[in-house]
Amino acid sequence: MVTPQMAGDAAAALRNSLPQGVKLVAVSKFHPVDMLMGAYQKGQRKFGESRVQELLPKIQAMPHDVQWHFIGHLQRNKVSQIVGRVALIESVDSERLLQAIDDAAVKNGTTARILMQVHVAAEETKFGFSPDELLDFFRQGKYQQLKATHICGLMGMATNTDDAWRIEQDFALLNTLQQTVARECCDLRGFDTLSMGMSDDYPLAIKHGSNLVRVGTKIFGERQY
Ligand SMILES: *Cc1c(COP(=O)(O)O)cnc(C)c1O
Fold it and tell me: pLDDT tens digits, residue range 5-17?
């Protein structure tokens, strides 16, 4: 059993072990608020949630200086419930979703900060832009149409495998994509976030340029679905 105290210590130890410039999102989905508070009390401020109906009550229950990262598949009809309330939507997986976020941000009078989710893993079920779709989106200058959205970078997951070589290939590709877009789109400001790495693979992700790791199990223990 992981206690809130233990979760807090684990988050703090993990933060302290990360290289300069690499930030930790504590992925708290399916864990109760007292566990999040344990991490908060040890200085954790970025928390990751994957479901709107779970995120909203947690925003209410937690202190106001928490920076919420939305990391799950987001339905367009729920966008207005989180725009203006989260620090970063990491899982933008389609142009239609991006447009819905931009519309909601305009309406809300805020700027939405987002990452584009890229699908590089072997699993077919993962959401996200393919590398080709991503490059097309930027090369066609579609980001220039956005009125109230700041695209801060990319998010991705590696193939779920024990094969470290395969995992490194996936992370290396995400890194190359981020650098390619940043180089080709000179008018794109602040496209500098590369969110990759979870409990089992974050050291490999950091090796390949991740500056935002999303760690759940290693901090809070196994999730009870
Ligand atoms: C659940 C989740 C994580 C955390 O996974 P762990 O293996 O528990 O560290 C990271 N990223 C995303 C997108 C997730 O859905």
Answer: 999 999 999 999 9
The helix/strand/coil state of 101 is helix
Is the per-residue pLDDT at 225 higher than 90? no
pTM assigned to the model:
0.98
71 in contact with ligand 1, CB cutoff 6 A: yes
| pLDDT computed for residue 196 by the predictor | 98
The 10 Å CB-count burial string (b at 16+, else e) for 6-34 is: bbbebbbebbeebeeebbbbbbbbbbeee
- For residue 216 and ligand 1, the question of a CB distance below 6 A is answered with yes
Query: Mean pLDDT, to the nearest integer, of 146-171?
Result: 97
Q: What is the mean pLDDT of residues 118-138?
A: 91
Q: Residues 181, 138: contact at Cβ < 8 Å?
A: yes
Tell me how far apart the terminal alpha carbons of the chain are, to the nearest angstrom: 16
| Cβ of residue 89 lying under 6 Å from some atom of ligand 1 | no
What is residue 124's predicted lDDT score, i.e. its pLDDT?
Answer: 72
Q: For ligand 1, atom 11, which residue shows the shortest CA distance?
A: 214
Question: What does DSSP say about strands 23-27 and 112-119: parallel, antiparallel, or unpaired?
Answer: unpaired
CA 158/CA 170 separation, integer angstroms: 5
Which residues does 157 contact at the CB level (< 8 Å), separation at least 6? Answer: 120, 121, 126, 170, 196, 198
